[in-house]
Design a protein that fits this description.
The complex is a heterodimer. Helix content of chain A is about 35%, strand content about 15%. Chain A is α/β, with parallel strands linked by helices. Chain A has a single domain, classed as Alkaline Phosphatase, subunit A, CATH 3.40.720. The radius of gyration of chain A is 23 Å and the shape is globular. By secondary structure, chain B is mainly alpha-helical. A three-stranded antiparallel β-sheet of chain B has the order 2-4-3. In chain B, strand 8 and strand 9 form a beta hairpin. The longest helix of chain B is centred in the C-terminal third of the chain and has 22 residues. The chains are: A alpha/beta, B mainly alpha. The interface between A and B is large, with 97 and 90 residues.
């Protein structure tokens, strides 16, 4: 998390100036004020999706069929009545119940990369989630979206917004906000106090703004007296008092009065936050239960529903002007991941247990799409790859979640060596 | 070539770091908080509220401030609110407050019961045992050796506990009716519902949960380094690989015997949800079928769970973890190797006082590093919290103390339960998705403070300015509803100074600009709706949003 002073030194756009100027009056009046910074370099936004519980990678992302493209190899139990799908260089699991997946890849394979054979270093839910999201097991390390949000060149009122799903703020907690359940929205617009058992009236602008400015001064003075970690904490508060002031002024512009209920609603809301420059990253949990120790056939309908929504999201991104790029599709990076993969063979309960080799889908701006990176053999075991090409290489590297995560950071314009020094990057993923 | 993750492995085995080069922190290496703020920190940590102004004044004038500080620490450790703080701190280790009932209340004969209340009861089973342990000054190891659980009537009905006939409806020691061998948290249904296990996992998740909660050692934080042959072996026969491969055995040689202790709770053959919470002695030997590892603890065979609990409690890491939990909770620091010399002082106190947690707390809060606002050593300064952030629970109790206001939603404190998600937004945890506190205020924290300040400000103004009021004023005791900055400028100035003193505990400087600025705010707000109540509500809310309310 950059401190207030650091941001001042970088001469970031001042929200105080924004709030105090004509734009502030426009937003206070409910008028839309696009803060498009077209002259600035493109700052990529990141939308993460999380399938909690551990998805079966063979359901879509990592098919294993014999030469005929429809008979599963002996080492892997593929879903019945499925076959190899292919669009460009991207292969996936297709079938009559997977038409929405076909549609997605038909439309967006060129933008989409599949990364296979990612070692999650653990098969415990909590631990693997942490590894996949941070590349480490240390609680002091923030997850990828938090790092991206906390180290952006522009400033965002809700740097990393967690609609649902996991969050590892590490020491950058001030960059992370949970939006779940609409409570954040009722805090922003003040309606929360109308819901309480002792309702109280809102303090309306401009008195509200006067109080905000008064508080800001008090926090700034307090922060200036602190040292070390205390200074970081106080600076965090100061930054977020500022952000809160901006959000109060822009809540209606962003449609923050309603986050929606469906996956697609949340996808579109996140893209709107990106468009308006309110957030740099977001996390959304993919609905469903993926920990299918029994009844592995639950995987397909849940994953297919995600691709149906994702197709609509990509369409939306392709047609919506961006915050720092012409269209959002040239600015937004999509990452869909899960705790770990599942065993190649079904167990006695027609389920699949935890498996340390995972696959993820990465799509959008800066991603080398139309390509599969990484590899698993016909026992669903990863083999070494060349991180520069993403292709098999006996003398290469076993792909770990840390290599993939660092590629996200590099796509986001960050220097990966600042975060996990000495760890290589899956360079092939970067366009 | 495999790349091993070079960082991030916690694996801090406390016994191994005692010989490191770091030395204990000396007082001259630290800058201590001003006296008043030391007392505020102490009170916030032990009671979740500020000291009274009388206490602060007495401390200012004390001939022996260190003696008075220690006396107050003793008094506040004896305060009932202290238990609440300890429960909060240990919940950060146990993570049992997650709002879960695990089953529909009707499944356990509690149809119609508010699930949120039942969830609180369930979470309180282990935390009530902690309360019992601390209150009765029992050794902390009682948490894993007690020959009883704790229950109130609702929990007793839900989990199948015999609630004593002569009990008064509160939380009391009680026995499970299924005859399980009781051993504190190790045999609580709440523990095993929070940390379940099924299928080939064979209680390993539970074994690791025990390790995390009582040894501060997470097996899953250890990196897995397996060669190709091991992976192939895992694919063909996981259990064989676990039993023979050195890489697997590095963890499983100790994890699996721990897991072997809990097969009486491994209910693969349960009829329904609640049925799977029951203890089944006939399943105790199932370890033979699953892992083949005899129940034990780091090489010591254990015949039953109580014996396992006693063995666990004798492990020096058990005490290390207890002290570390309290120290991390009170200092808002994550213990690093370099901190061991500082922590070891408190570890000695734990050992020499029969594992008494009150003595550990007393040792920590009377130490100089605890009272420090910064350190001269830059490395220590990066680890020292300097300013601590109030938790959502502390904010709740502080606002109640300062204003009398509790932020209730549907009759429940919004900052103490996660129904609305407010605690997480304010930097707290939910036990499932958010398991670490955030000490840097987020925009969510700022909004939480702003909105509760507004509600509490209005509450205070409405109450205090009511001419028919019979109770004492909460905060606005120097002005009346008829006063204005023009008619009573001195009273306004004194009132605002008093607000700062009473809300933050720290007086404004004589030449501070805040009174004038807030009088302007009052005037402006009054010009909008001619309501002195609303004008004062705004002023009080501004003071309640002070950083000194959030930080201590």
């Amino acid at each position: 998390m950059s401190t207030f002073n650091e941001r001042k030194r970088r001469n970031d756009v001042s929200r105080r100036a924004f709030l105090g100027g004509a734009a502030g009056l426009m937003t206070a009046g409910g008028l839309w004020y696009p803060r498009k910074a077209m002259a600035a370099p493109i700052e990529r936004k990141f939308l993460f999706f999380w399938a909690g519980g551990g998805w079966d990678t063979t359901t879509i992302l990592d098919p294993h069929y014999g030469p005929d493209g429809s008979s599963a190899v002996p080492g892997v139990d593929m879903d019945q009545n499925t076959f190899l799908g292919k669009k460009g260089n991207v292969t996936y699991t297709s079938g009559p119940d997977r038409l929405d997946v076909d549609k997605y890849f038909r439309n967006w394979a060129g933008y989409t990369a599949i990364v296979r054979g990612i070692d999650t270093h653990s098969v415990g839910h909590d631990s693997s989630t942490q590894f996949m999201m941070t590349g480490t097991s240390a609680s002091s390390y923030a997850d990828w979206p938090t790092i991206l949000a906390a180290n952006s060149t522009l400033d965002y009122p809700l740097p990393h917004i967690v609609f649902s799903g996991p969050s590892f703020p590490g020491t950058s907690g001030s960059a992370v906000v949970r939006a779940g359940g609409g409570t954040l929205l009722s805090l922003i617009d003040g309606s929360i106090n109308g819901q309480s058992s002792a309702p109280s009236p809102d303090i309306m602008p401009p008195a509200d703004d006067m109080i905000d400015q008064f508080v800001y001064k008090r926090v700034a003075e307090f922060a200036s007296q602190q040292k070390g970690l205390a200074r970081d904490r106080a600076d965090g508060m100061l930054s977020n008092v500022e952000r809160a002031m901006e959000l109060e002024g822009r809540q209606f512009e962003a449609g923050l009065d309603n986050l929606g209920n469906t996956l697609l609603d949340q996808m579109l809301k996140a893209s709107e936050m990106f468009r308006l420059g309110l957030s740099r990253s977001a996390m959304i949990q993919i609905p469903g239960g993926y920990d299918t120790h029994s009844g592995n056939n639950q995987q397909a309908p849940q994953q297919v529903a995600f691709y149906a929504a994702l197709d609509q999201l990509m369409e939306h991104l392709a047609n919506t002007p961006g915050h720092t790029a012409d269209y959002l599709i040239n600015e937004v990076v999509i990452v869909a991941a899960s705790d770990f993969g599942r065993t190649p063979k079904l167990n006695g309960g027609n389920g699949k247990d935890h498996w340390p080799y995972n696959s993820v889908l990465v799509a959008g701006a800066g991603v080398r799409g139309n390509q599969v990176h990484g590899y698993t053999d016909d026992s669903l075991i990863a083999t070494p790859i060349d991180l520069k090409t993403g292709q098999q290489d006996d003398g290469g590297t076993m792909l770990g979640c840390e290599h993939v995560g660092l590629a996200y950071l590099k796509i986001g314009g960050l220097d990966p060596s600042r975060f996990l020094p000495g760890v290589d990057v899956l360079e092939s993923l970067i366009r | 070539m495999r790349q091993v993750i070079p960082i991030g492995v916690l694996g801090v085995l406390l016994g191994t770091v005692a010989g490191c080069k770091a030395t204990a922190v000396t007082p001259d290496a630290l800058e201590l908080l001003p006296k008043r703020e030391q007392l505020i920190r102490l009170s916030m940590d032990l009671r979740g509220i500020h000291p009274t102004e009388d206490e602060l004044k007495a401390f200012d004038k004390a001939d022996d401030p260190n003696g008075m500080y220690a006396d107050l620490a003793d008094q506040w450790i004896a305060d009932p609110a202290f238990i609440g703080r300890m429960k909060e701190i240990f919940n950060q280790r146990y993570l049992v407050r997650n709002g879960q009932t695990y089953f529909d209340p009707s499944d356990g004969g509690l149809a119609g019961m508010d699930e949120r209340v039942l969830a609180d009861d369930i979470a309180n089973e282990p935390l009530a045992l902690l309360e019992y342990t601390i209150t009765n000054e029992l050794p902390y190891s009682y948490m894993v050796t007690a020959s009883h659980t704790m229950a109130n009537p609702d929990l007793a009905k839900f989990w199948g506990i015999d609630y004593p006939a002569d009990a008064n409806g509160g939380w009391v020691p009680a026995q499970y009716s299924d005859g399980r061998p009781e051993s504190g948290m190790l045999t609580m249904t709440t523990t095993w519902q929070k940390y379940p296990s099924m299928g080939g996992n064979a209680n390993r998740h539970r074994a690791n949960a025990i390790s995390k909660m009582f040894l501060c050692d997470d097996y899953l934080s250890r990196p897995i380094v397996l060669n190709r042959a091991a992976v192939d072996q895992l694919t063909i026969s996981p259990e064989e690989a676990i039993n023979t491969n050195a890489g697997c055995q590095a963890c499983h040689s100790t994890l699996d015997p721990i897991a072997g202790n809990f097969f009486g709770f491994f209910n693969y053959d349960a009829l329904d949800g609640i049925d799977q919470t029951k203890y089944r002695p006939e399943n105790e030997e199932e370890w033979r079928y699953y892992s083949g590892k005899e129940p034990g603890y780091y090489g010591h065979p254990t015949g039953n769970i109580p014996e396992f609990g006693r063995t666990l409690a004798k492990d020096s890491r058990f005490g290390d973890c207890a002290v570390r939990t309290v120290w991390e909770g009170l200092t808002q620091r994550e213990m690093a190797d370099e901190d061991w010399p500082e922590v070891s002082v408190h570890r000695d106190v734990y050992e020499s006082n029969d594992e008494n947690l009150k003595e550990v707390v007393r040792s920590i809060v009377t130490s100089d590093p605890y009272k420090a606002v910064s350190a001269h050593d830059p490395d220590l300064n990066e680890r020292l919290a300097g300013r601590k952030a109030a938790s959502p629970e502390q904010l709740s109790s502080l606002f109640k103390q300062l204003t009398g206001y509790v932020w209730l939603f549907d009759g429940r404190d919004g900052l103490k339960n996660n129904s609305l998600g407010l605690p997480v937004l304010a930097g707290g945890i939910d036990g499932d998705f958010v398991t670490n506190r955030s000490y840097v205020p987020s925009v969510g924290t700022v909004f939480v403070q702003e909105r509760i300040a507004q509600a509490a400000g209005y509450w205070v103004a409405t109450h205090d300015l009511d001419p028919a009021r019979t109770e004492e004023a909460k905060l606005l005791n120097l002005v009346t509803v008829n006063d204005t900055p023009t008619s009573a400028p001195d009273a306004f100035k004194q009132q605002i100074q008093s607000l700062y003193l009473n809300i933050t505990g720290v007086p404004l400087a004589a030449d501070a600009k805040e009174p004038a600025e807030l009088m302007n705010l009052w005037t402006y707000q009054y010009s909008v709706d001619a309501s002195p109540t609303n004008a004062w509500a705004g002023v009080v809310s501004a003071v309640l949003r002070d950083p000194r309310v959030l930080f201590y």
